[in-house]
Amino acid sequence: MLKALQLNSSEARTSEDVFVAESQWMPTGRVFGGQVLGLSIVAASRTTPTDRLIHSLHGYFLRPGDVTFPITISVDRIHDGRSFSTRRTQAYQNGQPIFSCICSFQTHDPGLEHETPAPEGLPGPDELPSDAELLGSSDHPGAEGRTRDPGFEIRRVPGPVYFDVPGERIGHQAVWARAAGPMPDDEVLHRAAIAYASDFTILEPITRPHGVQWTTPGIKLASLDHAMWWHRPARADEWLLYVEESPSAQGGRGLSTGRIYQDGRLVASVAQEGMIRVPQH
């Protein structure tokens, strides 16, 4: 995961800052959306004052990326104010944009504080099996992407939707996640890593109410857009609780929202709409 978020400066010179990264391997052959999210955050952060951290991102996935090609990230320094900085980033492959977003950064300012409390009564991560434990013996092509250097440990409540859909048929689930190993003490990198992880499971609450699993023959899923807000500092290498729900699905699309907690504090919020096409529908 750290390698997937590593950027190199480009020799290209334009009115924008340009960086290059290697695509992370995925069994589907398509670039993982979480990687371009994280790379966009790291790239934009390199162009902002060090006292400003990202607090929001709004982006669109424009084309599927190809893992056999590198990713070029351009950053447009749109605005620097007294407290806020705004950046537009675009990820390219073969000269075509695959992802575009606006990022906003802010200095630390005091102000009003409140938060929605974390849910109670959920099993802890030590009480749940990991993806690696559940999929280690599977020969399904998609399983390799979850067990081959996954970068993050993922544990779901009530369970994963790979081969069946356990629990009630409701558009809600909780996910425990943490980086698979220790990370440097770099707040930018931790925020990028949390964004990276936020794309793993966010569409699953859309399929749960319908009993549709990831291995349904002919199913097609794709992230369309992604919005994220960071509220408080958090470490990606310590357990995060990701509470996800889907308020609506229609027209071949579904919406999911998520709240990310650490030690009972709300550290980030997420919203994503995805394309969901199931053959029998």
> Which structural class do the helices and strands define?
mainly beta
Return Rg in Å.
18 Å
Number of strands: 12
Strands of the widest sheet, in order across it, are 1-2-4-5-6-3-9-12-11-10-8-7
Low-pLDDT residue spans: none
Question: Rough shape?
Answer: globular
What is the rounded distance between the termini? 36 Å
The name of the CATH topology of the largest domain is Thiol Ester Dehydrase, Chain A
Please give the CATH architecture of the largest domain. Roll
What's the structural domain tally? 2
Percentage of β-strand residues: 35-45%
Order of helical and strand elements = EEHEEEEHHEEHHEEEE
Biggest sheet, open or closed, and with what strands and sense? Answer: 12 strands, antiparallel
Assign the CATH class of the largest domain.
Alpha Beta
Number of distinct helices = 5
Helix content percent band:
10-25%
The overall average pLDDT, rounded, is 92
CATH superfamily of the largest domain: Hotdog Thioesterase
Account of the 3D structure:
This protein is mainly beta and 281 residues long. The chain has two domains: 1-108, Hotdog Thioesterase (Thiol Ester Dehydrase, Chain A, Roll); 124-281, Thiol Ester Dehydrase, Chain A (Roll), CATH 3.10.129. It is built from five helices and twelve strands. The chain has a twelve-stranded antiparallel beta sheet with strand order 1-2-4-5-6-3-9-12-11-10-8-7. β11 and β12 form a beta hairpin.
